[in-house]
Each structure stands twice: as structure tokens, then as C-alpha cells.
Amino acid sequence: TNVRLAIDCAEAALAANLADEASAVLAPFVEQGVLDDAALNLAGIAALRNGDQAAAQTLFAQLAERHPAYTGLRFNMAWSRALQGDFAGAIDTLDEDTIAALPQAAMLDLQMRHEVGDFDGAEARLESYIERYPDYAPLQAAASVLAMDVDRPDIARQCAERGGDNPDALATLGTLSLGDDQHEAARILFERSILEREKNPRAHLGLGLTMLASGDAKGALPHLDRGAEQFGDHLGSWLASGWAYLLAGE
Fold first, then answer.
1. What is the dihedral of CA 138, 139, 145, 150, to 10 degrees?
2. In this predicted structure, what is the pLDDT of residue 42?
């Protein structure tokens, strides 16, 4: 019955990546309407992280009515919509004030525009975002992926180098190394990227292509298949997998 201890417990649960437990301990107090706005936001983040996007968005909407100028709430709402698969809704939620205040909002805006195929809109924002937030590695990594897809390898390399050990940045550097026929360097970068994040279709596809280019068609197969499966509808990855089977004599 102690709301203060419940909030402390929920904060500890989130820090331990136990979002379900955070939601469970706050749920009675949400129902009673006794949480302050900071704790309601905590409940919203817990719901977002445990996959209950409807509950998260309900809480964020309530808070946004009372704090319309708070950019963090707008970002949380956009993030929840993105996790729900409502990419267009996430883009619409992110206004210029939020993007100007939060590097993670700029990153999400680029990623969502990239996801829905708005390459012109994403490219138009690319340089201003990376110049505004040069030290935010996740944004730089996401920008490196976009830059590759809009055929801006110079920007892709610059952003990937700023991205540190982010798996997207490593995959971009691996792709550039493969393009330069530096097969061993590419292999190492793709393997590091996969170690950082196993569900990583660009890195699996890149590693498979590297092995294929090095003459190891059989070794390439599991990575090309995994990349194609994870991408889902990326036709080039299925085509690469088909070539690998052919070259492996299957």
C-alpha cells in the first residue's frame, strides 16, 4: 500500500530490465489514480517496454494533455507507436521542437522515414541531424544505414565511424570494406556486428556475401538465409541466397 516504495521498486525493476514486474507493482496505484505525473510516466515507460502499447499510449496521452510542451512525452508516444508498427503515426507525432530537443527523436524520425520508404524526406533531413548531434552514436549509426541506401557512401563512412560499436555502424563499415574488396576486414566487422545484435539482417547478409566473394559458398549459406529471413521482403537477399546455393552445387 506504500506508493513511494512501489515507485522505487518499479524504478529498480526497469533498471534490471524487468518491465513486466514494474508494470505489475504500479498497476494498483494507476487504477486508484494516486500516482503523480512522474510516476505515471514511469508506468507508461514500463508498459511500452513490456509490449503493452495501448496502455502506454493511454498514459502518455493523459500526461500530454497536462504537459503539451514536454518533448519527452511526445517522444515516448512516438516510440510506442513505432514499436506497435505504426511508423506513419510515429513520424506525425515527432514535431520540430521534439527533434530539436532530443537526439533520440531525430534518430527515430530518420529510421521511421527510412522504414516507410520516404527516402527523399529522410535524405533531406540527414545532414542537418548528423551535424546537430555529432556525438550521439545511435543516431550516427542509423544515419550510416540510410546514407548507404541513398547512395551517399561518403556520409555513410563518416557516420559509421562516429557510431562506435553500434551494430548498424559496424555493418555499414563492413559493407564499405566489402565494396573495397577488403574481405578479411569486412568479415571481422560483420562478425562484431552480429555479436552486438544477433537479429541483424544487414550484417548476416554482408557476412554471407563476404564469404561468397572469398569462395566459401557453403559457409555463406546460413548467413544469407538468415539475412533473407530476417529482412523478409528484401528481394536482393533472397537472390544472393539463391546464387550461393547454385555455387555450392545445391
1. 180
2. 97
User: pTM above the 0.85 mark?
Assistant: yes
Give the Cα separation of 159 and 140 in Å (integer): 5
User: Which stretches within the chain are classed as H helix?
Assistant: 3-15, 19-32, 37-49, 53-66, 71-83, 87-93, 96-101, 103-115, 119-132, 137-149, 153-162, 167-179, 183-196, 201-213, 217-231, 235-247
pLDDT tens column, 170-217: 999 999 999 999 999 999 999 999 999 999 999 999 999 999 999 999
Distance of alpha carbon 197 from alpha carbon 185, whole angstroms: 19
Put residue 54 in one of left, alpha, beta given phi > 0 → left and psi -120 to 50 → alpha.
alpha
